[in-house]
Amino acid sequence: MGRGGQDYGKTENASASFSKQEDFAWARDVKQCEERYKVNPELGLSSAEVEKRRQIYGWNELEKHEGTSIFELILDQFSDTLVRILLVAAIISFVLAWYDGDEGGEMQITAFVEPLVIFLILIVNAVVGIWQESNAEKALEALKEIQSQHANVVRDGKNSNLPAKELVPGDIVELRVGDKVPADMRVLRLISSTVRVEQGSLTGESEAVSKNVKVVPENSDIQGKKCMVFAGTTVVNGNCICLVTQIGMNTEIGKVHSQIHEASQNEQDTPLKKKLNQFGEVLTMIIGVICALVWLINVKYFLSWEYVDGVPRNFKFSFEKCTYYFEIAVALAVAAIPEGLPAVITTCLALGTRKMAQKNALVRKLPSVETLGCTTVICSDKTGTLTTNQMAVSKLIAIGSRSGTLRSFDVEGTTYDPFDGKILGWPVDGMDANLEMIAKISAVCNDAGIEQSGNHYVATGMPTEAALKVLVEKMGLPKESDSSLSGHGDPQRCCQWWKKMEQRIATLEFDRDRKSMGVIVNSSSGRKLLLVKGAVENLLERSSFIQLLDGSVIELDEYSRDLILQCLREMSADALRCLGLAYKEELHEFATYNGDEDHPAHQLLLDPSSYSSIESKLIFVGLVGLRDPPRKEVRQAIEDCRAAGIRVMVITGDNKNTAEAICREIGVFGLNEDICSRSLTGREFMDYADQKNHLRQSGGLLFSRAEPRHKQEIVRLLKEDDEVVAMTGDGVNDAPALKLADIGVAMGIAGTEVAKEASDMVLADDNFSTIVAAVGEGRSIYNNMKAFIRYMISSNIGEVVSIFLTAALGIPEGMIPVQLLWVNLVTDGPPATALGFNPPDKDIMKKPPRRSDDSLISVWILFRYLVIGMYVGIATVGVFIIWYTQNTFMGIDLSGDGHSLVTYSQLSNWDQCSSWNNFTVSPFTAGHQEFKFDRDPCDYFKTGKIKASTLSLSVLVAIEMFNSLNALSEDGSLLTMPPWVNPWLLLAMSVSFGLHFLILYVPFLAQVFGIVPLSLNEWLLVIAVAFPVILIDELLKFIGRCTTGLRYAAPTKTSKQKAE
């Protein structure tokens, strides 16, 4: 065993002593941490101690949660009420078909088509549902990709490169530039002068964070733990020695993993699915009542008895007729359920996703399209969503023509694109000497770069340095330069020119004490120059001179120093990060230095403690203000949200001042608004007494320094308050809240794979305004879905009324279940889908969002469609009766086929036909077929009903086509919203009529559906009976428009009282 184990104890209990307690490594100094974890940083842990600790802590990897079994997923697909009704109807229908294929006039093949089609629908629905469910946990898999694969570990006194999963608490790890941090670790010692870590994906910070070994308070938030590095983050500068404190699921990224899993367990149905489930439950009750009524009305046909001495005796039961009326009940269930609704909804949502994709919103989960429409709150991340996540110089301060004067230039542009914007107020005759020096320092004292990637520009290196390079390009070249040296399309043309003129021979690296970086260059003037950039206050302390506009150098007096510091305070108040720029000409030690390691001056460069003395007596030339700027489109998008009644809450990991400045600039807050009660840090909110009331405030809210758990808590509280929440984010830290929100929106460009997999929608352009456009599209889609749901339900009501009337009047069954199934699935499908193309209302984003509990069908709409349904039922049954009892109707001759007429009394008592004396029937023709009834005249009411049944089916199809025109607008007349506003609907009607003609005039299909071709006169009868549905609904719409105020006055008052 190595000394690491010997010195600090040998028993497992000793190792376990710190495993059961909350670890606050950031609140202990280095020595305390070494003692607590019982390790010598020079030797590391011994192999035996590692094994002991692994028994306690396990492997450094994220857990793989047990997913839902395939059997559970299958069962889940049948939890929907409508699906269960369909399943029962299909099973009963199949059993009846098996025993009696031609009962009730159906052919054998027809009897089996209906249950098989229903089973097929259920199977397809289940497969789609299982596929969606199986994709739900991919966010957890993507999270594992972020973990480091290897680590440079000290064990048994030796350095080893080991798989990161083998780390245990107490391990000593060396981190270098480019390394991915393998576990949560306490920094023990910096090897380089500085160490910076990019942890924005975990914390939401817009810049890389400098790490040190200093102790911080126990209650520090994750951003404040400067002495800790976290698993999954990346070292961008320097190297250091660290102590592993947490591994696997105990790391910060492990906690995110647990939160994602927890959020995925709490996923709720979308508002539309909830409404459809409620509708299904109501439908179940209605179907039950109507089925019971049908049986009670017809019980006399299959069950009879005689009263003997007042007691019922001699019961007679007809199993044949019992199953026949049972089939009618099954037909009733088939008629009442809009089987095509799931398919049409899926199609409409899929079309919606295509429209949204054209607007850069990529929808990953179809129901999200509809949920977007009722979004009431958008919780937006700041960095990368409201802002560009690209540092940009927005203000340049140069020295004036005399002491005590400054010049200020505003810089346009929000990206790394050098051609994005210009510098306002720039001298028309080009740069003066002072501006040239600013450009020289910005270009040469810089390790970053800009390059074009596709249609946008990206930074390599530190974002602040890249922003300075962009500034240099916007400043242009000096007048004396040879502009032909590089092509005008080169994004670093000016920087390359400066680098050629000022050749860098040494670098004075940035460190946290002097807060500056310097480079020594061989200047084109033949002298050595020191170019420096850094914190303004620190540079001013080491500056003795300033350079004026004309290049002359004068002493830095107290007034000029105070003026520069005042300017710094004003820029900092606007949340700008400021960098000062200075240079030095008198470099006596380096006068002959050319990078030679044997030169005496080289020893000074090897000692960072000498950098401050080298960077003394500087000549100050100016300063720049940088920021992560807001996107240009965001301000208008925020105003659109306000007009649409959507509240915007900004939740960011960035610091409070920066976030508040951005929120004021984009319009979340007013420029001079008092925001004390509206802007809290995540911790302040968690300690807040009445969190829900804080979240209920109208207008915008800001939460800064927010951790993942804060974001989740905010989303959870909003959802408890019945808000529909859209949450945006791009980092690992956003994933749990994205999963928990009603709509999780991830960034497509800057977003991590974890965030994308946890989301419902991905923004291809990372732009907040795209969300607002998607909300408008979601509202439009929901309105269109309401249109086709109303259309389909009104059609189904008509079918139910038709079957009920048939049973109540005692006439032969007009339409068989397979015909109703054809209408519901195929004929109704195209018009319902086409209603999804209805143009959106012009004021769609001027209305407040609908509540998620708003009824899909209001009482008035239900009444309207009950009236329409009654007419559909009366028309389909009426045309059946007309064919049997009338030779002409409204001047249309129906006697051309030679069929025999019967009285209504005979038709309603057709089951007693065998007892009628001298009842005969003439043969009739249908297409090329002739139907004869010589053997059994009573068969006229069974196989002979085929023409009347075809008329009923055709009237049903025609009425539903006309009814689809009624659904173009909820209350608008066809005179104000004519059919051609949606040409897709006219095309869909043509397709549906075409499909109906197909089954009518193709013999094989006509046999399957039990129908025959119709003559021209019979088609005129169909149109005459079907067309009035438009006139009836126009009258109902007119009444609706006249009574709108009365119908909505009471509910509005109630909602206001509720709000108060």
What keyword list fits this structure?
1060 residues; alpha+beta; Calcium-transporting ATPase, cytoplasmic transduction domain A; Rossmann fold; 5 domains; nine-stranded mixed beta sheet; eight-stranded mixed beta sheet; 40 helices; 46% helix; elongated; disordered N terminus; disordered C terminus
Description:
It is a single chain. The protein has 1060 residues and is α+β, with helices and mostly antiparallel strands. The protein folds into 5 domains: 39-61 and 151-250, Calcium-transporting ATPase, cytoplasmic transduction domain A; 70-143 and 268-306 and 315-337, no CATH class; 361-387 and 631-766, 3-Layer(aba) Sandwich (Rossmann fold), CATH 3.40.50; 392-480 and 489-627, Calcium-transporting ATPase, cytoplasmic domain N (3-Layer(aba) Sandwich), CATH 3.40.1110; 777-839 and 856-1046, Calcium-transporting ATPase, transmembrane domain, CATH 1.20.1110.10. The protein contains 40 helices and 34 strands. Strands 14, 15, 18, 19, 20, 21, 22, 23 and 24 form a 9-stranded mixed β-sheet that branches. It has an 8-stranded mixed β-sheet with strand order 12-30-29-28-13-25-27-26, with helices on both faces. Strand 18 and strand 19 (516-522) form a beta hairpin. Helix 11 runs antiparallel to helix 12 and helix 12 (319-336) packs parallel to helix 31. The chain is elongated and about 135 Å long.
